[in-house]
Design a protein that fits this description.
Layout lengths: L1 H13 L2 H18 L14 E7 L6 E7 L8 E5 L9 H13 L2 E5 L16 H15 L8 E6 L1 H12 L6 E5 L5 H9 L2 H8 L2 E6 L2 E6 H10 L16 E6 L8 H9 L5 E6 L8 H24 L5
Parallel strand pairs: 3-4, 3-5, 5-6, 6-9, 9-10
Antiparallel strand pairs: 1-2, 2-4, 7-8
Helix pairs in contact: 4-5
Length: 316
Amino acid sequence: VRPVASLACAAAALAPATSRNRRGRAARRRTVLASAPVVVDKATWKTSGRNLQLKSADGKDTIIFDAEHPDASDPAAVVFLPSLALPKVNAMSSSLRTWCRKNDYSFVVADYHGVGRSTGDVAQATLSKWMDDTVTLLKTVASPDDHRRVVLVGAGVGGWLACRIAMDHPHLVGGIVGLAADPDFTEELLLKRLPADVIERIMDGMEQVEWGGTKYPISRALIEDAREKHLLLDGAERTLDIQCPVRLLHGLLDEEVPFNTAVRLANRIKTEDVTVSLSKSGHYMDDIDDFKRTRLAIQDCLESIFVVDLRNPGSG
């Protein structure tokens, strides 16, 4: 055993400095992963790790998030907003995390209020709450000094949130990639299609609703907040004041959200730099081809942002 150990030590000593530095960075990253809790603020925004902590917008709860930041001083950032009730660790977020690491992009993903490791009561979770917490996350840990190259990748309700944030806080969003985005699903899908007794139980507080083979916690608070403040497709045609590049991906085989939702949303978005891409995918878009299409859409957004920067003399 000792000769093998000695050889290992000798090999480590002879390893190039860059290799040792790489291992050192990896060791530091592992330390962050192992230490708990790690509370992040704007001064320490480039902290990388899993299950990092950030105070919620109202200061009452804790947002639990993962982040990876490259050594680059001004990296582009990809912020993934998961589907309803889906935790931050899932197939799409893992794929994006690996791709961002290879391309020296920052990557951030969080559990929503009341979901996964984040604190809070899911029965009180609303789009307004998730939106406020996401804005706090963007301002604090997603390239807080320059948001022009921050791309929000929103799956399902995450796509709805991305659009609402781009409308109310355009300076925080450089681009949007929607994955089976489901704006207005509370009105357009649930309330129009669920049996009356299920709707009654929802309006009494909360109900676990089965939709497309998956159960979702649907609450009265979620329904009423969306109806009052966040509907995008309701009423007469109107323009959604979204100016950044938008790429909407949707599956023709989506068993939860009709694919024409992407077309309707694109028609209302103000920018001309919006595209819709359809594929024979299901709602969660979680196979290898879906990952590839998502990466291409993000890259396309970033290239559009770069072109805008070149055209704008004041962009730096």
